[in-house]
Predict the 3D structure of the following.
Amino acid sequence: MTAPRHLTEAERHGIADGSIAPELEPVVAEHLGACPACAADVARIRTLMTRIREAPPPAADPNDDLWPSIRARIEQEKVLPLRDHAPARGAQSRLVWAVAGIAAAAVIVTGVLVRRGQSPAVPESSLPAGLTAASIAESTSVYEAQARFLLNQLELRRALMRPQTASSIDHDLQVIDAAIAELKRAIERDPNNIALRALLASSYKQKVDLLKRVGNAG
Amino acid sequence: MRRLLVVIAIGIASTNATAQTRASRDIVLEARRVGPTTPLRIYGIAGSIRLIGWDRDSLVITSQARPRDFFFAADPGGGGVKTGIDQYRFGIDSARTAEDSRPFYFVVYLPKQSQVVVHSVSAAIDASDVSGNFTTTSGSIEIRGMTATLEVNSVSGNIDLNANASWARAQTGGRGRIIVRGTVQDVDASTVDGELDVATPSVMRGRFSSVNGDIRYAATPAAGSIFDFSNHSGAVDMALPRDASAALDLSSVTGTVENGIAQARPAAGGAHSMRLTLGRGDAQMTVRTFKGTVRLRPTAP
């Protein structure tokens, strides 16, 4: 003799919401009359469904109220803060990506302008909105800030470095700084020359890369 | 003739014997089972570090002698944070003086496609079929074989990228030079005074820069590829086959731009800038210098 089986999950839900097949309904109803466990579960399901049906329509998602402020914060963070002093360590990677984007855009614009057959010395007014000689200058100033920060780190580590390594690094820094100085003088004479500014940003990038490389090699 | 063949045979036999003797003299410093995803950090001072990717799931470190300062350490989770991933560190302990940095020559066999981090001072690094980060102060670095991504840095040593890599970044300073060949797709390479040579048609995104070193490109640019070359004082020399398909923007602030491809008529430009299209202009190549000469010439037939 086998123990009577309980109703399946489908049978219990079917009898609770009335979707059970008509030919099964008498059998299931008979089982519920004899099995308190299944009857209790079906009653629970019915109560739950009643509550769902009677529940008021959902109010506005509370998260919707949060969204404008979150959105505002995201928009606020899109503005690249430019500082004169060394950037905080956590903000460094954001700055690098932003600067890389500006530098890349400068390169593209220079390329487009040269392709159009114009001189690299392009009046600022002819540049696309949002990209000006000033924006490239800003990217340069960010690189300058990064370079200062990394130079400070280099000085802290200098005592631990081998003399030959320190000498190599100093030589490279002199070479890059000489190129930067030459480019800055050229920009003073021709401040609207986008190619010059792009080359200056590239030189600063090389300086920053060199200082980072030194950090790794150390 | 017969005597010549005998001499050659003796020579080959002697070379093989020397190699076998040298191999038999090598001692195994460490051998253990590792997976291809096990991170490995390798430290060397002077001499050479040779990494050979092989089709086995084991790590074997050999050398001709056991260096006094050799160490091998399992470093679960990379020191402090346990992530369940084994990580191994081995090499020579850092030397503070030149007297401490006696040269040692390691040969390391490790699973192909391993990710490694290698640091050396003056030791030459020679790696095949492994990926990762390679840094040296004055040693040379040569990477060969199948790799995934490569980050290769030297303070003043030469770098030779002769590998198959999807992404590679190579930087050196001083007189250190860089050669990019093999089949690298996305590459960023820069030197200070050293030359930078690019001799591979595989590059799809390339950025090459120097301060004083000459940059030379000699290959057929792939369709859809984008290149950016920039230099301050050094020249940029572009050697392209006559049937290359590329749109070129060449400019120098105070230097000259020379077009040596007769059939390529510049669409615009003058002494300091030039724009021209070869073939259908499938690749985009931008060259910019401050005072270095920009040259465009056909590759030798």
